[in-house]
Amino acid sequence: MKDAANLAKQGQPHGTAVVADIQTAGIGRHGHTWHSEDSGGLYLSIVLRLEAQLPILTMALGLAVQRAVNDLAQVSADLRWPNDVLLNDRKLAGILAQVAEGSVIAGIGLNVNQSEFPPDLAELATSLKMETGREHSKDALAERIVAESLRYATLSRQEILRRFEQSSSWPKGKAVIVDDKIRGITAGLDENGFLLLRTPEKLETIVTGGVRPQ
Q: What does the CA dihedral 149, 152, 156, 159 come to, rounded to 10 degrees?
């Protein structure tokens, strides 16, 4: 993401993308690391020169990656709020959006041709190769993800929310726990894209946090 931010600072246009096969300092939300097997993943950073609220934009990016993966790998990926791409309930892709140099830098990490994960991630993460039994073209995936990201990023807030609720099993009726402390049943999204959670006491609005099934 630093390279993309530098390109944004140099005036590179909307849609400029930095693509890599290997990363050495992957990061995720809340300071989490991202495991990167040599040449097994696809890592993109996209310069988005637009005005957008990050909660909604990150959901749009999740939809873009889901669409690209489903179409090219012929799978049925799910979306966990706000933008984790899952396959068979394991994390396939993660997305982080940050404002830098007057632009939004969208960082996307996708497990493509990885064959294994460390023991602490083996039950949590997956790769397209592990799920489909075949190698996948990272060039084709990168091109499609960038194209879909640019398309979804231009949709209205209402359209993004509508599509997210259609494309994800998480926003409504799912028993979840947030940050290992708040338990409840998901009750939809508010107008800002925040997750509504029905707890025994009240209706909570989840602005940020790690959401996991109970």
A: -140
| Model confidence, pTM | 0.91
Considering the chain, tell me which residue range(s) the CATH 2.30.30.100 domain(s) occupy.
Answer: 172-213
Regions of the chain with pLDDT less than 50: 26-32, 34-35
Residue 36 has what pLDDT? 53
172-213 in CATH: which number? 2.30.30.100
pLDDT in the model for residue 90 = 97
Confirm or reject CATH 3.30.40.10 for domain 2-167, answering yes or no. Answer: no
Residues of each domain in the chain carrying CATH 3.30.930.10: 2-167
Instruction: Give residue 53's pLDDT.
Output: 83
Kindly state the tokens that stand for 114: 């990885």
CB-based burial, 168-197: b 16+ in 10 Å, e otherwise: bebbeebebbbeeeeebebbebeeebbbbb
